[in-house]
Write a structure and sequence with these properties.
The complex is a heterodimer. By secondary structure, chain A is mostly helical. Chain A folds into 2 domains: about 100 residues, no CATH class; about 210 residues, MetI-like fold (Orthogonal Bundle), CATH 1.10.3720.10. Helices cover about 75% and strands about 0% of the residues of chain A. Chain A has 13 helices and 2 strands, in the order ααααββααααααααα. Chain A has a two-stranded antiparallel sheet. The longest helix of chain A has about 40 residues. Chain A is elongated. Chain B is of the alpha/beta class. Chain B has 12 helices and 12 strands. In chain B, the strands form 2 sheets. An 8-stranded mixed β-sheet of chain B has the order 6-7-8-3-9-10-12-11, sandwiched between helices. In chain B, helix 5 runs parallel beside helix 8 and helix 6 crosses helix 8. The longest helix of chain B is centred in the middle third of the chain and has 18 residues. Chain B is globular and about 70 Å long. The N terminus of chain B is likely disordered. Classes of the chains: A mainly alpha, B alpha/beta. At the A-B interface, helix 9 and helix 10 of A face helix 3, strand 6, helix 5 and helix 8 of B. The structure holds adenosine-5'-triphosphate, iron/sulfur cluster and magnesium ion. The site of adenosine-5'-triphosphate has 14 residues of chain B, from strand 1, strand 2 and helix 2. The site of magnesium ion has 3 residues of chain B, from helix 2. Chain A: GO terms for molecular function: dipeptide transmembrane transporter activity. Chain A: It is found in: Cell membrane. Chain A: Keywords: Cell membrane, Membrane, Transmembrane, Transmembrane helix, Transport. Chain A: This is Peptide/nickel transport system permease protein.
């Protein structure tokens, strides 16, 4: 079976298990109707909702309904989101569908994660290359310190420290929120720290490896300028480990964004998830988790695809081995 | 007066193309200072073929890499003078030096396969510096690459220009390397064991090709090799290196007839003869000294069959021993025929 098809099926199965897990957890933590309507709801309202949601049916039937609803993009409705008061006695006949709300939060999350990735990746490549060009120099030491610090720093703390420095003390950037490019800087920096450290370390070691190979001396011998030796000759051959680690970091970045969003009140899926948890908005939480999980799985798949394009040997190995 | 003197000396021998004076290369290693090249001087005339021989580790490659500016400093340290076109290559700004590389002096390496970038097409690599220096279009560069591939006799150049190095045999890779080196018509080609990794018939083809190109372009060739047979066949003058120093330099015919250094004699005697006349191989006993621990006196004395007391005390300098030749041995005049 072709490698990518196998990976696709694996991803699909993984997603299926995750969704099932979300369903099970939703049923374990208590009576969904009670959670959704709150303790102040009357017994009639609760009964009505149980009837509507099919909660009186056997659990396996509920599960099948849940799944078939999902395939139609129906993650249920929320009775909390956008309601200023708890629907107490009279059950509102219509809640707010949750999926469109989750999806409407995606662009903000993408903007944050994308900015961080572009920033982290380009800076990491430059720093890693510089470090590899001058091993044991000050720039190499600097890159080492940056990558060690950024990998071990807790994002939450880093975010707070940046807020204290740039917003509280210097007062040049907002503490949080959304709207202008200034709002983007601190959360993007916070989120970029980890991938910056990890990627620059991989760039450094991959480039050190390549720069010691004979074809580099040969390129210099024929008069290729040093920038071209490094950024064309060596970097091209170092690209596979670099793309691999960047792909790994990309899914980390998406999950990391969830946390950073709450620190900076950045209105993405992460903030929505945390808010919804606080509101005990079960359908919204379920939809949020499923969407984020699907995203992470999709990103991993895309990275695998990029990897096979860069390294045709993977495909061939698998073809040869399993055909 | 001065002009006359100059023209006189020029009449005696053409002005050297490359003049290497007291070249030294050391490396700072965790185990201390390693002296890879300990002060060598030699000259190269236009169009000349110079052979450099000597055991593994004697400093052949490092010496020439230093001339090319390929030694990383630190840990390396290069001193001395390398005069080309009345300028010292070692002290000129990196920019000028890079201009010299490829344009005036080019180098090819032992393992052509690993000296080519695995992820660039051969066409790109052959015409790379041509395109950069001549600032020409991609189409022109491609035409140049095809022309060069034809020159080094790579069949169906037009279709193979887009291939990657791993799609070529070792011999073909070496041809690609040579094409790369020729792109800017250098005056000097340094070939560091260009045929060692190849099998015998391919070796011969590559050497024939190099000789042919040299005839056409009047390019000087510096050939590093372990293969004394190759030296005897292709080289005008040979230099023998031992433990980072030149121990003998002579026209090749004279060298093989009457060596002026016991080490050269040992090398020649250890050559397998195709005609089988000598019957027995005489390998030189012992091993060369480690670069960190040079013996006192003559570096070769622990292995020398002819050593006298003086050899362990006083280091012999390279000195003239007859027409156009020099040797570093106290007993240079007394070395028996091979
Ligand atoms: N980067 C380095 N650091 C330390 N020592 C080095 C370095 N490069 C070369 N040397 C030392 O310099 C000496 C000369 O090496 P060189 O490569 O010139 O030998 P060679 O004559 O070309 O041998 P071969 O015939 O095996 O190619 C060796 O002893 C080697 O160990
Ligand atoms: S100087 Fe002495 S030890 Fe050295 S090569 Fe000559 S004879 Fe041998
Ligand atoms: Mg060598």
């Amino acid at each position: 079976m072709p490698y990518l098809l196998r990976r696709f099926i694996q991803s699909f199965i993984l997603l299926f298990f995750l969704i099932s897990f979300v369903f099970v957890v939703g049923r374990i933590i208590g009576d969904p109707a009670l959670i959704m309507l709150g303790t102040s709801a009357s017994e009639t309202a609760l009964d009505q909702l149980r009837e509507n949601l099919g909660l009186n049916q056997p659990i396996w039937q509920q599960y099948l309904v849940f799944l078939s609803d999902l395939t139609q993009g129906d993650f249920g409705v929320s009775f909390r989101y956008g309601f200023s008061m708890m629907p107490s006695d009279a059950l509102r006949s219509e809640g707010t569908p949750v999926l469109p709300i989750v999806l409407s939060r995606l662009p903000a999350t993408f903007m944050l994660a994308g900015t961080s990735l572009v920033f982290a990746f380009s800076l990491a490549v430059v720093l890693g290359c510089l470090a590899a060009m001058h091993p044991r120099s000050w720039i190499d030491n600097l890159v080492n310190v940056i990558s060690l610090a950024s990998v071990s720093l807790v994002q939450f703390w880093l975010g707070l420290i940046l807020i204290i420095i740039f917003s509280v003390h210097m007062g040049i950037l907002p503490t949080g929120g959304f709207g202008t490019w200034q709002h983007l800087i601190l959360p993007a920096l916070t989120l970029a720290a980890r991938p910056l450290g990890r990627i620059s370390q991989v760039v450094r070691s991959a480039m050190l490896d390549e720069l010691s190979k004979p074809y580099i001396s040969a390129a210099r011998a024929k008069g290729v300028p040093e920038w071209r030796v490094v950024f064309v000759h060596a970097l091209k051959n170092a690209s596979i480990p670099i793309v691999t680690i960047t792909g790994d970091e990309l899914s980390q970045l998406l999950t990391g964004a969830m946390l950073v969003e709450t620190v900076f009140a950045w209105p993405g899926v992460g903030l929505l998830l945390i808010d919804s948890l606080g509101r005990r908005d079960l359908p919204m939480v379920q939809a949020g988790i499923c969407v984020v999980a699907a995203l992470v799985i999709f990103v991993n798949l895309a990275v695998d695809f990029a990897y096979t394009v860069l390294n045709p040997r993977i495909q061939m190995d698998n073809r040869g081995g399993r055909a | 007066m001065r002009a006359m003197q100059q023209s006189e000396t020029q009449g005696a021998a053409p002005a050297p193309l490359l003049d290497v004076r007291d070249l030294r290369v050391t490396f700072d290693t965790p185990h201390g200072l390693v002296r890879a090249v300990g002060g060598v001087s030699w000259t190269l005339s236009p169009g000349e073929t110079l052979g450099i021989i000597g055991e593994s580790g004697s400093g052949k490659s490092v010496g020439l890499e230093a001339i090319m500016g390929l030694i990383k400093t630190p840990p390396g340290h290069v001193s001395g003078q390398v005069m080309f076109d009345r300028r010292d290559v070692l002290t000129m700004p990196e920019r000028d030096r890079r201009q010299l590389r490829g344009e005036k002096i080019a180098m090819i390496f032992q393992d052509a396969m690993s000296a080519l970038n695995p992820s660039l097409t051969v066409g790109t690599q052959i015409a790379e510096v041509y395109r950069l220096r001549r600032k020409c279009s991609h189409a022109d560069a491609e035409r140049k690459a095809i022309e060069l591939m034809d020159r080094v006799k790579i069949p169906s150049a037009k279709t193979r220009i887009g291939n990657y190095p791993h799609e070529f045999s070792g011999g073909m890779c070496q041809r690609v390397m040579i094409a790369t080196a020729l792109a800017l018509n250098p005056q000097i080609l340094i070939a560091d064991e260009p045929t060692t990794a190849l099998d015998v018939t391919v070796q011969r083809q590559i050497m024939t090709l190099l000789a042919e190109l040299q005839r056409e372009d009047g390019m000087a060739l510096v050939l590093i090799t372990h293969d004394l047979g190759l030296v005897a066949e292709t080289v005008d003058r040979a230099m023998v290196m031992y433990a980072g120093r030149l121990v003998e330099s002579a026209p090749v015919s004279a060298l093989f007839e009457v060596p002026s250094h016991p080490y050269t004699r040992g090398l020649i005697r250890s050559m397998p003869r195709i005609d089988g006349a000598s019957g027995k191989l005489h390998a030189i006993g012992g091993t060369p000294p480690a670069a960190g621990r040079m013996p006192k006196g003559c570096a070769f004395h622990p292995r020398c069959e002819m050593r006298v007391e003086r050899c362990g005390i006083e280091r012999p300098n390279l000195r003239p021993v007859g027409k156009n030749r020099a040797a570093a041995c106290h007993l240079a005049e007394e070395i028996p025929h091979v």
